[in-house]
Amino acid sequence: MSLSAKARLQFMKDLGLPAMLRLAKATKGKRAPRAANPDFGPPLKCAARLKEIMTRHYYLSRFAPGARPVAWVTSGAPVELLRALDFYTIYPENHGALCGAQKMGPELCAAAEEQGYSSDLCSYARVDLGHFFSGKTPAGQLPKPDLLFCSNNICQTVVYWYKVLAHRLGIPLVLFDTPFNYGEITEANIAYMKEQILEMIPVLEKTAGKAFDMQRFMRLAELSKSTSQLWGQCLETMRARPAPMTIFDAFVHLAPVVSLRGLPVARDYYEILLAELTERVGQGIGAITNEKKRLMWDNIAVWYKVRDFAELFAARGMNFVAATYTNAWAETIQHLDMSRPWESLAKTYSLVILNNNLKHRLGLMEKMVREYSVDGLVVHSARSCKPYSLGQYDLKSLLSRRLGIPAVVIEADITDYRFFSEEQALTRLEAFFEALEAA
Amino acid sequence: MSPSELISRGEYFSQWRGGGGQVCAVFPAQYPRELLWAHGVLPMEVWDPPLAPARAQGHLQPYICSVVRQGLELFLAGGLDDVGAILFPHTCDSLQNLASLVEDYLDPPAPSLFFYNPKAPFAAAAKGFYVAQLQTLERELTRVFGPQPPEGMARALEWSRRLSELYAQAYSRRAAGELGVGAAEFYRVLRGGEYMHPRDYIPLLEGWLASAPANGGGQGQGIILSGVLPSPPDLLETLDELGFRVVHDDLISMSRRLLYPPPGEGDPYEALAESFLSMPPCSTRGSSLSERLEWLKGLARAGGAQGVVFSVVKFCEPELFDLPELRRGLKEAGLPSLVLEVDVNQEVGGQAATRLEAFGEMLS
Is A192 on the interface with B (CB under 8 A)? Predict the structure, then answer.
């Protein structure tokens, strides 16, 4: 790492970026505010803070190379190990969501397809590879990684995807192999994961150019734990009637716990968010003005349709109050225990929803339906995500039958709207609305 | 032996069960078959059952591959009702979820067994973990089928080594142009090992190798056939008709797992772990692209292949992700390639034949 690069990053962090943000704010033309939609309650005040945090994160990342080791990381990887070695982390999945929300999915996917990547592959991967080949991104610029850090606890796809990056960039790929939990997690699995952690630390140290500091790791792991717990508490406020935010808000406010977990800024942000949500609950302020029905979402968001779906459901007095996806970054954090750091880290990351069997998912969803007083279920069959989607048809039928709630499957994709038929989705949703209203 | 003497999967299954034998259905791809043999159990592999997709459509999205779809179809059609257990090795996301779908939601008629294959790059911990997986599977097999007979494992390892020798003979004779059979016959015979017990299959394979002509296997362009499995059959027939000479393959169901016997010395579980870890690079094992590329180039060099045909099952993510970099690297090495996306048990059709023909002309 070079001293000048470090000085440049520090300068941009302390002075350059704050000045730029102030200037941008001062010179920003006064846009006419979007007409308030009467179906929604007042917007969350801390959304502006979230935007600032994520802007800072992506903007400063371009100054990271040379100043700090840079890693591209999968959303389910034990990032705490990297935090202890001061890596600057970029999450291609988060970037994919950003591209999807900005409706850049098809353009970037096409850039990957031009290089031979099938349109049947995960569109997060195609977006990322499309960005890699074209350099296009709504984030301005992403730093080239020194290392790729990947865990297959969310899917095997990330392994195949990161292998391509490793091959093209000629950099190390560190895999945290988390055996799928067909049943209860086993001691053999935990031992295997623990041994892998111990084996990977020297590799990470080599790229970082510094020694792993166990005390620092433990402090940051605790920080990560408190961040996830706060996120979980934010989600739990949605048990209130009316719920103080919608799951579409949560999809957006999820970004720090995914991308900045283990950093103080993420924990601090969720303290602010939790305070605001708690205040709204106390004052009876709902995310939508007339919450008549409460819904649960299964699978990743349809990023290019978040606003449209939010409005579609809110207009009918329907609020999404729970989602398996947003819950994933809070569900297993209670296992993290610094008296057994490696075993507990293994358990925390191995037991996430997508590395767990479908029986677990059914039980989890049943519990969430009860705890969040859910009236109906919307299942997003995401073409990109086989581990999230294969099994959903049966899951939907079982839940619907056991709990007596209406449920619907919509076929879509997470970022590539070339594979989304609005007409077909709306037809299915209309039938679902009728069933829900009649229930 | 003539290939016509090779009885079908269904017939063999009936005969085996009729004789009181136990069967474990096994989904793709890599698994320690020796452990099943050691228990006297016949592993019956489920790759591409020839059934019309009907029931599975109610359980699977259209973007799930035909290997998973056909396997589930067989299960739903009752084709696995008479087996003693169903083994699901961990291969990819879709097979992983299929295993959980069957076990957790579909009330299987037989116990489900699971086997997690560690992923590359294999950490030092991988070998011990693999051995632990074997021990767990051994306990499960004992619970379901009873204990191994004395010498069960030793005999199983012998069968495994003998089979690997015979497969290796078949592959090396073919590569040298000394096996006068086309791709269709070659794979029809070698796929017998997916469902026949080695006690029956080894003599059959020995007989076939002894009786197969030493030449006449095609003088056309030499290719490497890469992908998941040698299916659909009409693809192989088309290759033969067009005069291609498959000098080697890089198929998950074939050379990526069959040619690497457990070592003859030491602890049997350690030997099985060694066998697994020594298998060639494979997309489903997470092998690096540079390893796969070098492996493919090496196969082509050794067999004098002029190009590579990738026969990829549609929606197979592990294979599809590897393709662009492999093709780029092969092209740089002067090896053209062709990609055919196939569904198992669906004819490849005239368009694929035309593309193969054009590819052959380009190679000549």
Answer: yes
